Amino acid sequence: MKEVTCVLCGVSPASTGQGDHIPPKSLYTKSERCSAKYPFHTVPACIQCNTDGSKHDEALKVLIGIEREGGTDVIDALAKTVGNNQRIADQIFNTAKRSTEGRTTEVKITFDADSYRKSISRIARAMYWRMTEEILPSSANIAAHSIEEIDRDAAQNLCAIFEQQPSTEINGGTFICKLMQDTESCILIMNFFGCHTAVALIDL
Fold this sequence. Notes:
The protein has 204 residues and is an alpha+beta fold. The chain has one domain (20-203). The chain is 39% helix and 23% strand. It has six helices and nine strands, in the order βαβαααββαβαββββ. A hairpin with a 4-residue loop joins strand 6 (167-170) and strand 7 (175-181). The two termini are 30 Å apart.
């Protein structure tokens, strides 16, 4: 039987299990995970990458949970994650800043940027393999950002360019990815649940 390489690290052999769920299955509510609503997408991954990745997904899960529409299921999942993770709970309550403008009140929260970037980078590696059938070398440099971190004009221009690119939809269209590539670099734009967009800039 031919050995399959982990598409996340590009080095170790993938485990014989089902692989790693990309996008992370933990981003979905319990009812979504337990139903047959989505054929959850997986990629070949080694045990180490699978294990290490899950601990970085919590920040992404909370961020998307705050932005996402979905009723009580989403709120319950968000509350459970915060309740079971003291580190994230501390980040939320220690960094929350309330601002009021007119009749609108906003609360801004600072998240663990390192965990967020590691989670998005892992998803980008998996999607690069899915869309090109090639594994990114471990030396490939990935700069991962939320679209909100990018200059507004640059972000609008980037999104306009990507509108013309074909998209890959995963899990019933709840995750959409687009890729633009040349010989030395590529850019992936990834949208989660229609509410959160991340950008991965990859030096090949």
